[in-house]
Specification:
The complex is a heterodimer of chains A (618) and B (263). Helix content of chain A is 35%, strand content 23%. With 618 residues, chain A is of the alpha/beta class. The chains are: A alpha/beta (618), B mainly alpha (263).
Chain lengths: 618, 263
Amino acid sequence: MSLLDVRELNVRFDTPDGEVHAVRDLSFSLARGETLGIVGESGSGKSQTVMSLIGLLADNGRADGVAELDGENLLAMSDAALRRVRGRRISMIFQDPMTSLNPYLTVADQMTQVVREHEKLSRQAARARCLELLEAVRIPEASERLDAYPHELSGGMRQRVMIAASLLLNPEILIADEPTTALDVTVQAQILDLITDLKQRFETAIILITHDLGIVAGTCDRVLVMHGGELKEHGGVRDIFYSPQHAYTRGLIAAVPRLDEARSERLAAVGAAGPAETSARAAAAAASTLLDVDDLKVYFRVQHGGLWGERRDLKAVDGMSLVLKSGETLGVVGESGCGKSTLARAIVRLVPATAGRVCLLGQDLATLDRDAMRAARRDLQVIFQDPLASLNPRMTVGDIISEPLWTHYPKLEAREVRRRVVDVLSRVGIGGRELNRYPHEFSGGQCQRIGIARALVLEPKLIVCDEPVSALDVSIQAQIVNLLMDLQAELGLALIFIAHDLAVVRHISHRVMVMYLGTAVEIADRASLYDRPSHPYTRALISSVPIPDPDKEHSRSRELLSGDLPSPISPPSGCRFRTRCRFAQARCANESPALRPLGATLVACHFAEELAADAARQ
Amino acid sequence: MVSAIVVGSMAVFVIVGPWFSAFSYDFTDWSNLSVAPGLEHGHYFGTDTLGRDLFVRTLYGGRISLMVGIVATIVSLAIGISYGATAGYLGGRTDHIMMRIVDILYALPFMFLVILLMVYFGRNILLIFVAIGAINWLDMARIVRGQTLSLKRREFVEAAEAQGVRTPAILRRHIVPNLLGVVAVYVTLTIPQVILVESFLSFLGLGVQEPMTSWGALVKDGAEELESAPWQLIFPATFLAATLFCFNFLGDGLRDALDPKDR
C-alpha cells in the first residue's frame, strides 16, 4: 500500500489578473522508502504541488482534490492537525540554505526548537539528538558546530544542517525542493550522495523537486514530468530516460547539454524549429590574437573581523594569463567564489586591475585615458547573468538598445538608430514591434536576447558572457546557447563564456579554462579537458556533474571532493587546491605549482605527469 | 486617487476662493467681532477677535502653507537628488567628503539657524523657504545616496558602464529614473513635514507676519481662544489635518503610478 496517495489535485491562485490554475488534475502515489522525482521548468507547478500537500500555499491559493497520507486526507485537515503532520511525518528542505536558517539563532537552538515543539524532551536529550543527526549528515566536528551561527557555516554546511533538522523527528516523507540548486557542483554531489545514503538508513520516502534531469537520473526511482501545471509523463526513471513517451519529455532530455556524449553542433531547443545549417567554426583556429591577458591580479581590500579588524586583501583574481584569438570561444569554469565574475569584470574594466595587463588588439586597456577607453569599449561588450536585472526597468527596449549607439555615435540620425536597433533585434529573434515595451513584459529568455542585442549593436569583436544562461530554464538555455553560437559563426565574434555548468561550457567552447581560488589550474582544448582531465580539481569537477542517464549515473565511480572552497582572504599556502586534493603531499604545501604544458594542455599541478600515467594505466 | 483629488481641489480652492469672498484678509468687521460661523452676517467660518473673516483667512493661510510646502520641497528635491546621486554614484573619497558636509550641516541646530536668520535679515517669508529648504535637502540627499549605492551595483548600470556611457548620462538615464519611486514617497512625506515646520515656526511667532497668515498661525491664534471661540481653531486645523493626511496617502499612490511594471 502506498504511503501517500494524491488524486486529482488542483491548485488555483486568485490574482488581480484572474484565476491562475497552477496545478491541474495531478494524481500520483508514493510508496515507503521510495524516491520520487518531480521534474519541470519554472512555472510548471512542481513546487506548488508539494506546498499544497503540507498546507503552505500562499494566502490567495486554494487546493482541492484528495491527498491521503495513510488514509488521512491532508487537504481536509485542520491547521492544528496539519502542524502535527509537518515536521513529524512530512518535513521539507528548501532551495536556499542561506535564507531558511534564522541568522540570530545557533544551529542547536534552531534544531532543538523543532524537537521540543513536537516531543517532550529535556534540553540535553534534544541536544544529543541534534548532535547525532549532525554526525549523520557528515558535518565535521559536529559538537562544535552545534553552537555556531548560520553565517559561520558555508552553503553546503547549511544545507546539511537543514537536512539534519528535517530528519530530527524521523519523518516518513522528506520533501526536497531544489535542494542543491543554490550549491556548487562539487557540493551538490556531496549532498546528493548524502540524501541517497540517508534514504537507506532512515527508510524515508523522498520527493525530490528539481529542474535538473541529471539529478533525477542518479537519485530517483520514479519520475513525474510536469509542464504548465499538468502531468506530462509519469514512470520509472529508466522508462523516462530510455523510452520517453511524451514529446515534451523527449524535448527536455534532448535540450540538456551533456558531458558524456559526442558534441553536436546545436542543442535541441524545446518547441523550436529544427536545426539550422552548421557553422564554420574551424575558421577561427587560424585567426590572430585578439585578447591577451597577462598576469592579471584583482585584489579587494576588506575589513577582516569586526569593527576594528585589520584590513586585508581578498585576492579574487591572483595572477591569471590567457590568450584569445578572434572568433574563438574560451570557456571559464569554476565553483562560485573562485573569481570568474571578477575576471570578467576586470577584462572589461568594470573593476580596476591591481596588477597585470589586459591587451585588446595589442592595446593595453589600463593605460588608455577615458576617451580612448570609451572607444575601445566598442569592441568589448559584456552580457550578464540575470537577464532582467541587466535591463533598466524604466527604459523601453528600443531605448536600451539605442543607448550604446547614442553614446558612441552621437551624430547618428534617429532613423538610422532605429534601423540598426530593429536589425539587431531581429538577429536575436525579437520583432521590431516590441521596441516600445518595457523589460518586465518579456520572459527571462527574451530579456537575455535583448541583453545580447545590446551587446551586439556596436558590432564588437569580443563579448564577455558572465553566466549568461545560469538563470534560465533548460530549454531556454539551449536556445540562448544556440543563438550565441550562430551569432559567433555569422559575425566572427570571440566569446569568453563564464559558467559553472560544465556541460554548457563543453558545448559552446573551443578551449576551456578551469579556475580555482583566483588562479587557473588547467587550460586545454575542449576535447582533451573533458576526455583526459589532468588536474585533480578538473577531474573532481567533471565527476561531480550528474549525467542524465540512469545506468551511467549508477555505474559511475565518483571522485567526490571533501569540504568547501577555502577563503580567498587567506588561501592555503603552496598549491591552493591541496586542502581538498586526494593526491596532496608535503611538496604541495610549500611550492606553488606554475601552469606548465603537459601535451597540449596547460596544467598547474606538481604531479600532473604521474596522475596522467596512472589514468592511462587504468 | 481620492487623495489626489482632495489635494488638487484644496489647492484650487485656496487659490481661487479668496476672489469670491466679500472680505479681504485684513479687513476688520467692527460690528462682528469674534462671531460664531453663520450665513446671516456673511462670515461662513465666523470671525476672529479682531473681527477678520476666518473663511478668507483660512484660504490665505492655505496659500502660504501649501506654497511653503511645495517650494521648500522642490528646493530640497533638486539639491538632494543631484547631491545624493552624485555622492552615491561616484563613491569613494568624494562620497566621504560630501556626506561629511551633510553631517556637519545636520549638526547645526535648526531653531538656532532660523532665529539667526531672523535676527540678521528680519522676518521675511522667503527666509522661511530658505531655512526649511536648507534643512530638508539633507534628508533627501541621504536617502537618495543610499538608494544610489544599491542601484550602482545593479547589472544594468554595470552594463551601461561597460558600454562606455558617460557618467552624467548614467546618472540621468539609469540612476535618477529608478530613484523616482522612493523619492515620490519621500516628497509626499516632506510636504506635510514642511507645512508642519512652518506651522510650528508660526506658532512660536517666528513665521509669517501679521496681518498675513498661515494655517500654523491660525491654529495658534485659535488655540488661544479655544474656550470662547472654538471655530477659530477647528476650521484651520481641519484644513491642515485633511491636507497632511491626503499627502501621506498620495505618496503610496504616486509610487505605484510611477512604476512601469503597473502600466
